[in-house]
Amino acid sequence: MTTVVIIVAVVLVAACALAFLYTRRTSGHGMRRRFGPEYDRTVARHDGDTKAAERELHERLKRHGSLHERSLTPEARAQYAERWTRIEGGFVDAPQQSVAEADALLAELARDLGFPDGSDFGEQSAALSVHHAEHVNGYRRVHAAKQGEGSTEDMREAVLEARGLFNVLVSNGTDRQVHRHPHHAEGRGTA
Q1: Which of 38, 119, 127, 189 could link 64 by a cystine bridge, Cβ 3.0 to 4.6 Å?
Q2: Do residues 82 and 159 share a domain?
Q3: What is the pLDDT of residue 56?
């Protein structure tokens, strides 16, 4: 009987220790480390209320943490890269159109990789923030710029920042940069 009590006590202590470590990892410093700038952005959106921000981020983790990205084929990667290059190349002549196309391309790319489809931008950007917190803000900026928010310079900066998320997504999460095609002159017409 004493052996059973000791075994139960050891199991309970181990379970409590694991629960403590999990809670610590997914709150406070663990959340800040996992979400990086997205943590600060969420805290700011909650007027500095870290508990509310951490609840929101924890909810995102529960909803989207187990999402498994699908890989793109080399052909699909090349097609997306070509489309992105055309978007950037057309920016000088049609910045608003380029921003709208960048927003649509990011939504389509995320959907093709297994994220929620772009019909609900908030849901899609929340899922992206769980898996690509360092880069999702560029997508948000492009989406806002598509709505007509900001100057041409703001749109240019949004597209440049969104390129970070595009590069991570199109390279299947490896952070490789999009390779420019040689027929595009360096700096000519690029955002």
Answers
A1: 127
A2: yes
A3: 79
